[in-house]
Amino acid sequence: MNLLLDVLGWVGSIEVVAAYGLNSSQKIKSDSLLFQLLNLTGALFLIINSIYKEAYPFTFINSVWMVIALIALVGIVKKKRQ
Predict the structure, then answer these.
(1) Segment 39-54, tens digit of pLDDT
(2) Residue 1 has what DSSP assignment?
(3) Would you say 36 and 80 are in contact if contact means Cβ atoms under 8 Å apart?
(4) What is the number of domains present in the chain?
(5) Is the pLDDT of residue 1 over 90?
(6) I need a labelling partner for 50 at 20 to 30 A (CA). Which of 16, 17, 30, 58 fits?
């Protein structure tokens, strides 16, 4: 179980950094589905890892990060439906 939670934490970290790097290098836009999905799943995996590690400030910031991604995803979906 420890290994799985550590792997989730690393995958989440890689996803969030990849999203930021790809956006900063203008490979993807911040309003793209890929950017928001990387942020959403990355934050979720980091939340799981940080709860396990009892790193609650980290849990909080990633929860906020995830809510922001969810709101953006809802906006993207609504925009595509129109």
Answers:
(1) 999 999 999 999 999 9
(2) -
(3) no
(4) 1
(5) no
(6) 30
Coil/strand/helix, residue 26: coil
> Domain of 57?
2-81
Alpha helices in the chain (DSSP H): 2-24, 33-52, 56-81
- Residues whose CB is less than 8 angstroms from the CB of residue 70 and which lie 6 or more positions away in sequence, other chains included: 40
C-beta of residue 46 within 8 angstroms of C-beta of residue 54: no
Task: Tell me which amino acid residue 42 is.
Answer: G
CA dist., res. 77 & res. 33, Å (int): 9
18, 38 contact by CB (below 8 A): yes
Place of tokens 């836009």: 29
